[in-house]
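Before a computer can learn anything about folding, someone has to put a protein's shape into writing. The outcome of that step, for a single protein, is printed below:
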Amino acid sequence: MLLSLVLHMYSMRCVLPAAVLLGSAPTYVLAWGAWRLLSALLPARLYQAVDDRLYCVYQSMVLFFFEHYTGVQILLYGDLPKNKENIIYLSNHQSTVDWIVADILAVRQNALGHVRYVLKDQLKWLPLYGCYFSQHGGIYVKRSAKFNEKKMRKKLQSYVSTRTPMYLVIFPEGTRFNPEVTKVLSASQAYAAKEGLAVLKHVLTPRIKATHVAFDSMKNYLDAIYDVTVAFEGTQDDKGQRKEAPSMAEFLCKECPKIHIHIDRIDKKDVPEEQVYMKRWLHERFEIKDKLLIEFYDSLDPERRNKFPGKSVNSKLSLKKTLPSLLILSGLTAGMLVTEAGRKLYVKTWIYGTLIGCLWVSIKA
């Protein structure tokens, strides 16, 4: 019985971080909302600078759990600059943890507050978070014919005009790669064959629209594009076949010992501007990703599996980067919950914040 209890507790390791991360959301939204009201008559650039700092505090707490709590080893390959830049971040997409991987790289460049995402439209309905991501600079997009190029271009150009630091994360595949969902992979491969493009094995055929609009809207403001390829160690079954990547909950249960991250920094002058040529260029970049992942998962040489070609660096994040944020936000949340008035404010923030946020994104986002 004791063994059963221990095993049950072990399987619930994600509960603590989930409780802290979700539990501190109203505290964070209240702090941000107060600043939003105070800055209403101030220059947009000043509002954005403080908002970026607040976002950095929250995401640093997130990284405390995803790096220090899990003990995951981060292995970096390629050329990640030490200094922050205005960039578009293009990555393969296989897990909800991919959002965190962008933070993992950004924090190592002191650019964590500048991370902004291009997101699926359905995510705007997330309680509290959906509205805030849009306010922070995130862009919700619909697929295919419903894609609103004009709205995305207008929002990005507004950020350029206010000189907003930009670390724009895009997952060009449009949906997560899952080797167990063969229908999606087969459809992606069939489309590539139809278009005369190389058929890919470990990534989906990338979509060009969001990437092209983002680059075209900010090409004179950007420094580079980061082409990022991510592989989670431990995602092969007993037969050596690739399996589904860990979800956030599974990751927080410490089910991934290492993340391998390959970075190619591409100067903006090397990116074709016209959409038809950029489409070909983007597919070629995904061919390179596919070759890296084939090496990682399928190499005939066991010594070359479970790593990318080239030298890797074991990158450790200092607790000084994350622990203060955890203490600040959890302390403020605990302080709110110990009083009756604080508890009422906390509950009202969850309820009314969610309702107002959903109303706002239904009109604006």
